[in-house]
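Working notes for the structural subgroup meeting. M.R. asked for a predicted model of this chain before we commit to crystallization trials. I am recording the input and output together here so anyone reviewing the notebook later can reproduce the run.

Input as submitted:
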Amino acid sequence: MVDLYELRQLAAFAELGTLSRVAEEFHLSTPSVTRSMQHLEAYFGVPLFRRGKNRIELNDTGRLAVSHAQKLLGAAEDAVRQVRAYDQRQRTIVVKSCAPAPLWELLRRLSETQPEKMVSSAICQNQEVLSAWEDGSCDIAILPFPFAGAEPCMAEQLYVCVPPDHELARKAELRFADINGFNFLLRTELGFWDTLCREKMPASKFLVQADTAAFDELVRSSSLPCFTTDYGQHHHADYPQRVNLPLRDPEARVTFYQARRRAER
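Returned structure, recorded in token form:
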């Protein structure tokens, strides 16, 4: 059977031009590389080189052998990548979620119930989550509406969070129409919540902050309103110096649905 290591040396010879440079590249002796080339000629059963005094070069057959060697080496490398990727996929749970809160809850449960598995998670827009579920590229999908194979997993209510002296704080509850036009602090990676707020508030501008600590500092020091949820108030950042006002639009209260592949049930 042909030796892939020797084929790599043959391909390297086509690129480098001399046996001594191939030997240097592979940390071998030149006689060792010479023997490899002789083994390949014996395997193919034909001469691959033109040999002259102090010089060796590929003949036409040798150049054809190099072309096939490069294809074989590429196929071998691709096979290794695919096998490794398959093994990694078998040990990884891929999660796509439309929002952070249901993802946080799921990750907590997965760490308790399947600690031996790695988890790859992402917060995406609804269509990306649905596409990943339908094409099989994720194991668990979370969306804010029913879809094939999904069951309800949690509900979440959106709130507006303002300083007590803000004009919006005089109201007991709000609707998107009341806050459209106000500038807001906004976190990144909110998934469909981000899209919903921007659609419902076309006259507003958003100061977007990716870093959690920086966002919390802005909330403490700024008079700009921000969003929170009932889940966030209980499990993550709570701002006691601010007032939380529920949004009463039907779209501001969401039930999330989760679907899992059979292997992850």
